[in-house]
Amino acid sequence: MSMRIGIIGAGGIAAGAHIPNYQNYGPEVEVVAISNHNIEKAEVVAEQFSIPHVFENYQDMLNEMKLDAVSICTPNKFHAEQTIAALLAGCHVLCEKPPAITPEEAALMEATSKKTGMILAYGFHYRYSPEVQTLKKFIQEDELGEIYAGTVKAVRRRGIPGWGVFANKELQGGGPLIDIGVHMLDSALYLMGYPEPDTVFGTAYQKLGNRKGVGLLGEWDWENFSVEDMARGMITFKNGSSLLLETAFAANVEASEEMQVSLLGEKGGANLFPLKIFQEKHGTLIDIQPVFLPKKNMYKEEIHHFINAILEGKQNLSTPHQGVILQKIVHALYGSALKGEAVKLYL
Predict the structure, then answer these.
(1) CA 271, 273, 275, 277: dihedral to nearest 10 degrees?
(2) Could you tell me the pTM of the whole model?
(3) Contact status, residue 91 vs residue 70, Cβ threshold 8 Å
(4) In 186-241, at which residue ranges do the beta strands (DSSP E only) sit?
(5) Other C-beta atoms within 10 Å of 336: how many?
């Protein structure tokens, strides 16, 4: 009997990443239902992927379909509500990033996962890149030593999405920090072993998004742009390490997009994209750069790992508690930017 999958949300991430990679897993997995508040949109996606059941209300889908697992592919505002409902319905859940909008929501999602015994994973697909996985092996073999500092960048020159609700603060909770920034932040935290954060200081700007301009990702609704277009910050951890962060949908920089994590350890440092490792050995300074890394579809790796975790009864690569930590950092960065002062975190 195949694993029965339901999809909540019929937008681009569902059609472009989740559904096709469930369907290419094999006969063990079947996408049997999709729900979306705009049922016409769900019907279009259902026809495209031959999904037999379509619902307007996700709760009706959970009640009627006896699903094994669910992907949450909706705006951030609805992640917590829908994830908790799916977990309580006896479904394993893969929720798109970020976990939610507030740390309290993420903590409740974690608690519900523990209560129900269902797997809860988050869509941090960069973890599954060959660069991250290769560097993780170097770190596990102590090639970098103690990692005490790092820099995270997720910056676009003019990359405000011209589709969806990415510029709507009520539905998303913020702009580039909570959208693209969390990908690189999670990658850094994952490589560092998800240390316990201590203090954050953040700043946020809205300088370019709320006026008309050139859009490399389509024309955005600049008149209703309600999120930051840039955020910067510093995070210190209780083990003494620190991270600098810079993320932007729109900034006057050279590159169209830069997604990068740089880490500094006592035995070596590294940049992720492309992967380079910097060390001192045998009386000289050396750079290590792979001559070959297998090309992988990060979404495929993420979806298949989630399925394998369910089938084998093992822990997923991303955990609910890591989601809580990340959500607390993001929330504190926004809070610090609003207050104009550092914020102490208590976990």
Answers:
(1) -10
(2) 0.96
(3) yes
(4) 197-205, 230-237
(5) 21
**Where do we find the tokens 């409902």?**
85
What digits encode the pLDDT tens for the residues 26-61? 999 999 999 999 999 999 999 999 999 999 999 999
Tokens of 130: 């060959």
Residue 234 has pLDDT above 90, yes or no: yes
* Contacts (Cβ under 8 Å, ≥6 apart) of 269: 144, 262, 263, 277, 278, 279
* pLDDT tier, 347 (very low <50, low <70, confident <90, very high otherwise): low
pLDDT tens across 65-77, in order?
A: 999 999 999 999 9
pLDDT in tens, 269-319: 999 999 999 999 999 999 999 999 999 999 999 999 999 999 999 889 999
Give yes or no for a contact between 195 and 135, defined as CB atoms under 8 angstroms apart: no
Q: How many residues does the chain have?
A: 347
SS3 25: coil
Q: Which residue has the higher pLDDT, 314 or 92?
A: 92
- Could you identify the residue written with the tokens 């290590």? 288
Per-domain residue ranges of the chain: 3-125+300-314, 127-295+327-344
List phi, psi (to 5°) of 218.
95, 170
Q: Please identify, in words, the CATH class of the domain defined by 127-295+327-344.
A: alpha beta
Cβ atoms of residues 39 and 56 within 8 Å? yes
Cβ-contact 201, 332 below 8 angstroms: no
Beta strands in 135-196 (DSSP E): 147-156
Label each residue of 12-25 as H, E or C: HHHHHHHHHHHHCC
Q: Using one digit for the tens of pLDDT, what is the confidence trace for 170-206? A: 999 999 999 999 999 999 999 999 999 999 999 999 9
Cα 120 off chain centre by? 13
Distance of alpha carbon 72 from alpha carbon 122, whole angstroms: 9
Arithmetic mean of pLDDT, 220-241: 97
Token pair in block for residue 163 = 């589709």
CATH 3.40.50.720 fits 3-125+300-314, yes or no: yes
Phi, psi (deg, nearest 5) at residue 297:
-80, 110
Exposure string for 213-226, b = 16+ CB within 10 A, e = fewer: eebebeebeeeebb
